[in-house]
Amino acid sequence: MPTIDDDGFILWESQAIVRYLARKHGLGTLCPSDPKACADADRWMDWNATTVWIDLRPIFWNLVRIAPEKRDVALVKSSCDKLAANFAILDAHLANRKYVTGDAFTMGDIPLGTAVQRWFNLPIEREDFRNLEAYYRRLQGRAPFKQCVDLLPLT
After folding, report:
1. pLDDT band for position 151 (50/70/90)?
2. Is pLDDT of 53 > 70?
């Protein structure tokens, strides 16, 4: 479980940690200072936690964490179909944006970027989502994403 200790302040839950660190170190950038832009980033973080991860988790666990002979192939298939439907929403949203809240990378892109990285690197069949693929390439162009997300193996 992700946990940080910031001078005695113990915080767990990955998205709470992202929000906290973005507010502490990136207020006005990672955490937009405009309340509407900040709420927009929050929305995408919540959508990732309540929608994307619900469908991505069974795929990830079955294909990465569970031995091949114990995998639930039917669950992987149904989860891939649901995840593709959700990523179709994100793909459409990204049609005229560089990042989820617009032209600037924000805290909303951090958890979604991790989900998108898994989508493109898990051994599954994928829909052709051109906007999502372009988004992933933009994320890959960011040094912190390369160092902290994209170069790490899924296993």
Report:
1. confident
2. yes
Range(s) of the domain holding residue 43: 34-150
- Residue 60: give its domain's CATH number: 1.20.1050.10
Tokens representing residue 152 in the block = 């790490």
Closest CA to 61 of 75, 40, 82: 75
**E-only strand ranges, the chain:** 3-6, 9-12
pLDDT tops 80 at residue 75: yes
Query: Would you state the structure tokens that stand for residue 101, as one six-digit string?
Result: 């809240």
In a domain, 7, yes or no: no
Closest CA to 33 of 132, 104, 84: 104
- pTM of the shown model: 0.92
CB atoms within 10 A of CB 119: 24
